[in-house]
Amino acid sequence: MSSEGSRGKRAVARAPRSAAVAPARVRTIKEIAAIANVSVATVSRALQRPEVVSDATRQRIQEVVKRLGYTPNALARNLRTARTRLIVALLPDIANPFFSEVIRGIEQVAHESGYSVLLGETRSSLVREQAYADMVAARQADGIITMSHRVPKIPMPGRLPVVNACEYVKDKQISSVYVDNVAAAGAAVDYLVTLGHREIAFIAGPPSSPICVDREKGYRLALQRAQLAVDPALMVSGDFSIEAGERAVELLLSQGQSFSAVFCSNDEMAIGAMRALGSRGLRVPEDVSVVGFDDIRFARYTSPALTTVAQPKNALGREAMAMLIELLADPEVPPRKRVLSADLVVRGSTAPPSPRKRK
Amino acid sequence: MSSEGSRGKRAVARAPRSAAVAPARVRTIKEIAAIANVSVATVSRALQRPEVVSDATRQRIQEVVKRLGYTPNALARNLRTARTRLIVALLPDIANPFFSEVIRGIEQVAHESGYSVLLGETRSSLVREQAYADMVAARQADGIITMSHRVPKIPMPGRLPVVNACEYVKDKQISSVYVDNVAAAGAAVDYLVTLGHREIAFIAGPPSSPICVDREKGYRLALQRAQLAVDPALMVSGDFSIEAGERAVELLLSQGQSFSAVFCSNDEMAIGAMRALGSRGLRVPEDVSVVGFDDIRFARYTSPALTTVAQPKNALGREAMAMLIELLADPEVPPRKRVLSADLVVRGSTAPPSPRKRK
DNA sequence: GCGTTTCATGTAATCCATTACATTGCGTTG
DNA sequence: CAACGCAATGTAATGGATTACATGAAACGC
């Protein structure tokens, strides 16, 4: 029927805001004011601070607003008020279940204070981090919580509205919340030592991340405490992926390294490690004990269930958001580094080393 | 030292945009124009369509922009242009690894077309879905991709800039991309039948979701094809969580139901099911075969590795975003429901039923 | 050399809400 | 009853960009 018309319309480059199909248009505060027979100021007040307008007027306005389905244009509002009540949480990898609990914590506190949270996945790419951070410079968000060890550059005077969670940065000006990775990793290795292990391999995370360096430090210190030599041949590093864990163990085994336990810098690598051990016919924990880090949701469902260092994920998120809110309310609050503690959770993947010598 | 001053300051309610600490202020296009000795229009043009300003002017402006670290106020820009080049992807649960691959697909296509993606976790709460959807009504985002089976209400005339991914809604006006759940579930059950299973239990997902109904339908149809009775006692439903899978199997076992295979509506419930079977001393797949749905990243790392229906996660995301972009460019494109196919991936959790009778 | 393009730039309207300040009307109070 | 305070509402400036239209200068054709 109207095929010609519609094809013709589609053929030309369309104006961005073609109202061709729209039967009703989007409402503005002016229209509401006109229909409710008040000024725009009164409409604005009726919506922002209802207590200052008279009951009759307020009700009339609210009725019109509801009837016409009016939603104030947040861009205009935010432009005027210079705040958005929106924060962006940057996470390296949504596929990593570790972060989901942290996000929950962030959102809980955010909502309590009237903030909304949007998530940006950065895949550890500087470019993406920067793109999301630019939203702050461009006034589309009030602040950023970053879960990487880099602070994006925001061309802004004064204190950056950025808080660091899970990781930390050296920059003294940036508040961070994270766990005592040295102590936590140390406790994990201490436990293996207590079980009787003497040859403990270590799968490190990306060395660019300070927390990974700390976990390695914890491992080294624990070995030293036990008067065990730190053997570089037993240390491999990976990128936090399951596959990296597999590859690391395969490497150790193919090199003929002897070890009765592996401490992994995160749970996903531990899962990979268990898998690789299994496919080489080694049993966990009888032949090799495995310890992870993070305590992701799947950790208790591996078989055997994974012994791991449980980070207080929810608390990390809550604390980070609380700090950011504080910072947004008062740019002068001094930055601080808040260190939480992480506890070892013993499950089935660890046991005393078997008495017979492993190959 | 300045403790009194700072306490005093903190005590009073601060003006929202206290510039107290800021040594330099945030720049506006006016300042750039003044410094570069051109009009604001020229600055805007130099940044938006550099080819229309002369080389000399452009360079001068860019130099000033860079030197002062100027970022245009996106609120002002978006207010004027009525577009944000931002879309929000609503996902029920970031902890579910299924969605992460879908998000990747969305982001890939989005970036190709100059869109940014922000993620909103809804936890299946209508209120949260609505809150994020309101961002579109409030002009803070151009469109929404929702991964739930509900379409948020956006008080907007005409076609809603919403696309549905992974799930689908009955509403004909909303484009959806999803897999043929009936066929895929059927294929999974067919496979179990082929292996020789006759007593196949089913763990359903939330019945509110159409795709879960479809998966159940696929299960029923496959049983009928195999001329097997559909036994309601072998059907339990769960909420997609690992724990739900555990509980479902425990329920079946405690009821003394006899079954040699379980088909689960998602992988997490399958992981829970395997766990529950294991803790009752039943081996997978020797005693009971387990099949999941989704093929999340962890599915190949369970032991035994999980046989599951692989959804084309990346394609779901890409297609959804492509549809949304198309819709944003032209509100008149007809809505469509795009159905992709999902393939069974056979791994170690399935085997022919053991000849001896199980308890 | 004069009219006509073309190119580069400027002027000012516009997007839509918030809010300081102004105004109005009414009830108190001395 | 003049003066005042207060409550309710209106007027208009404002936030920071984009962009239609206007202008001026240079280039061009004949």
UniProtKB/TrEMBL annotation, chains A, B:
<dbReference type="Pfam" id="PF00356">
    <property type="entry name" value="LacI"/>
</dbReference>
<dbReference type="GO" id="GO:0003677">
    <property type="term" value="F:DNA binding"/>
</dbReference>
<dbReference type="InterPro" id="IPR028082">
    <property type="entry name" value="Peripla_BP_I"/>
</dbReference>
<dbReference type="InterPro" id="IPR046335">
    <property type="entry name" value="LacI/GalR-like_sensor"/>
</dbReference>
<keyword id="KW-0804">Transcription</keyword>
<dbReference type="InterPro" id="IPR000843">
    <property type="entry name" value="HTH_LacI"/>
</dbReference>
<feature type="domain" description="HTH lacI-type">
    <location>
        <begin position="27"/>
        <end position="81"/>
    </location>
</feature>
<dbReference type="Pfam" id="PF13377">
    <property type="entry name" value="Peripla_BP_3"/>
</dbReference>
<protein>
    <submittedName>
        <fullName>DNA-binding transcriptional regulator CytR</fullName>
    </submittedName>
</protein>
<keyword id="KW-0805">Transcription regulation</keyword>
<dbReference type="InterPro" id="IPR010982">
    <property type="entry name" value="Lambda_DNA-bd_dom_sf"/>
</dbReference>
<keyword id="KW-0678">Repressor</keyword>
<keyword id="KW-0238">DNA-binding</keyword>
